[in-house]
Amino acid sequence: MLDQSNNSGVRITSVRVQNFRSLRNVEATLEHLTALIGENNSGKSSFIEAIFGAFGSGRSQFSESDIFLGPEEERLPKDRRIIVDLLLQPLNDDGITVDSFPVESLWLEAWGSNVYQDGRDFDFLALRSSFGWSEERGDYGIERHFLKDWVKGTESGNRPTVKQLETISVHLLAAQRDVAKEQQQQKSFWGRLVGDLGLSPELTASVEAELSAVGGRVVEGSAVLAHFKKTLGGLSDLLGSPDESINVRAVPQNIEDLQQSIDAYFSTRDARAFPLAQHGMGTRSLATLMAFEAWTSWFHRSKKRKARHIFLELEEPEAHLHPHAQRMLAKRLIGSSAQGILTSHSPTIVSGIPLASLRVFRKVGPETQVSAIPVSSFEAETIEKIERFILRSRGDILFSREVLAKLRNFENFGTNFPK
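RESULT FIELD:
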């Protein structure tokens, strides 16, 4: 069941990408969780990398080589730019898009007059990130603007501030994710969580005093450490600094050192617990996702009154996972409070995601095309039959190029899923 207890109040409902690698000109509507499917090299990873490069947390810079170049073009036109547009619309408390923001909305406070109305007088906010050649700088660079007309892509002339850009928090978890590496990085979700334990000054002082006392007893009671300390004392003579001294610390002496040694141990039934870094890649990959979930839920729990929309990009969540774990993960992602988009080649993962949330990528010549299964044109009974058919095929049918199916009480139909 979808958790709307931490609803941010907005959703990214559409993304438009132009001139990024094979994404010459594509647009995809997004749900709370959207799955991108298609063959290898069809543009799925490029799509999420375009969003992250344009608006991601710790934004990575585009490069000249990312700009689309046609097969018959020898040189890149100077006026060709990578463009990534995001369309955001307000949500109610049930996670359903509505026509306007509440009068006292944090988003109106954050974006002010940059919230516009479409042809139906519905509120929206649109952001553009554009990368290309700048005559003024004599180099390639990136610019960001608000849009006042989503359909026409008309820029308003206003540029978002750093604080306004921070209201959209885009995070990419690549297929090579590994909690063992996360534990070593201060800016990872693991690092952010344990980097500030939130202890009071009084408790911090008390704990550090106890750590110092415990460390002293260990050193004093160990003949090995006493011998080691005495031998290391020779550094003073070798360095010509007789007034210098050396201490051996058997345990962390302060909270900062203690935070760096925090670990998590995991055990299976009737087995000894081991640190996460000593488990297999499937467990370590899942632990990275759990660290993100922990950071997200803690952020919502402890956040101050401000606008912030968290958007997760997840590449191949099935990596290293048993099919049962894949099914459970798909359910968990659907129920997450953060909006998400994933790429997958797993029938098990994709078959657990609603048809309306699937986007099909395919390559036509040098360019990528994106389409959605037109569920809005189907009756509810037809959708149920198709979903049952998908489950019976264990999701394999979603990765077929051509499909000819006959369902009971349902006329023969032929369809080309990529189209």
